[in-house]
Write a structure and sequence with these properties.
Blueprint (H helix, E strand, L loop, with lengths): L38 H23 L5 H8 L2 H32 L4 H16 L2 H9 L1 H4 L2 E5 L5 E6 H4 L2 H26 L3 H9 L4 H31 L11 H12 L2 H30 L5
Antiparallel strand pairs: 1-2
Helix pairs in contact: 2-12, 3-4, 3-8, 3-11, 4-8, 5-8, 8-10, 9-10, 10-12, 11-12
């Protein structure tokens, strides 16, 4: 029995098929690829460019901005000291705020209803009261408690000290900023810890890893991916929030420029000095935040 193999790609009459690479008889030219045009983008970009040019012209050509006065006071010793003091207040508020906030976050996640309820009450209270009121409360704490006693709870006291001697204006400012920031930091840390898959905890527990090591070596490094962006925004907000302590006559940046423009009357120029320094500080913090986010994003799929 003979078996005949047919070329299914060739013509049925057995003639030789034309080369595949050549153009077929009667076919038209190859289609031309045309990129999509976006005229709306060009119009929007042109409009934004015109607005930016107008804004720059208004800033440069208007003598009322008094750029020469801005240059005179931008690096003035009193302004530089105020910038350093602002950064110190921010560092204290962030360090103690996130330390206490981390403790509150763990309390909120605790299975003990008393610990969880106490942490929830703290967060609800300090997030509900404006920062300026908290600062005024701590600043005037001596009106409620002239002296603070230290000893056995509900028992005898070993010694006491005057409230004004213990809590001065700087201490009151740092205390108010820290306690206020802790309420927000607690929710940031808690959200970051909850973002880690529960299977990570189960796998670590199955391997017999101690709970403290689970937290610091397994859970927290993964949680930092979610914590860093929100925490960065809070830190930047606190840099600007330190301006509220001007009510306590502390020489931070905003208070210092007020002192200067009340003396020389150059209000707009001194406000520009404060604006430039706040912009420098927040930009530097934003750069640090960017690199921290990139560091903790390593290994993410």
């Amino acid at each position: 029995m003979a078996v005949e193999f047919l070329d299914i790609d060739g013509p049925p009459d057995g003639s030789k098929a034309p080369p595949a690479s050549g153009p077929r008889e009667g076919s038209g030219p190859a289609p031309k690829v045309v990129t999509t045009r976006h005229p709306g983008r060009w119009v929007a970009a042109a409009a934004v460019a015109v607005l930016l040019a107008m804004a720059a012209s208004a800033l440069i050509t208007n003598p009322a901005w008094e750029w020469e006065v801005v240059g005179e006071f931008l690096l003035a010793p009193s302004v530089l000291r105020a910038v350093v003091f602002t950064l110190e207040l921010t560092a204290l508020g962030i360090a103690f705020g996130f330390l206490l906030g981390s403790v509150l976050a763990l309390m909120r996640m605790s299975g003990d209803p008393l610990l969880s309820s106490a942490a929830w009450g703290y967060i609800a209270l300090f997030r509900s009261i404006p920062l300026i009121l908290q600062l005024l409360f701590w600043y005037n704490l001596a009106l409620l408690y002239p002296r603070l006693s230290f000893g056995v709870p509900f028992g005898p006291s070993f010694f006491d000290i005057g409230t004004m001697d213990l809590i001065g204006p700087v201490t009151a400012a740092a205390l108010g900023l820290s306690l206020h920031q802790a309420a927000y930091a607690a929710e940031i840390v808690r959200a970051g810890l909850l973002s880690v898959d529960h299977g990570q905890r189960e796998a670590a527990a199955a391997l017999g890893i101690p709970r403290t090591r689970q937290l610091f070596r397994i859970i927290l490094p993964q949680a930092m991916r979610s914590i860093v962006p929100t925490a960065g925004n809070e830190i930047i907000g606190l840099v600007k929030g330190t301006s509220v302590v001007y009510i306590m006559a502390l020489p931070e940046l905003f208070y210092q420029v007020q002192v200067i423009y009340n003396r020389n009357g150059r209000v707009i120029a001194l406000l520009l000095v404060a604006t430039i320094w706040y912009l420098v500080m927040t930009t530097a913090l934003s750069i640090v935040q960017h690199y921290l986010e990139r560091h903790y994003a390593k290994g993410r799929a």
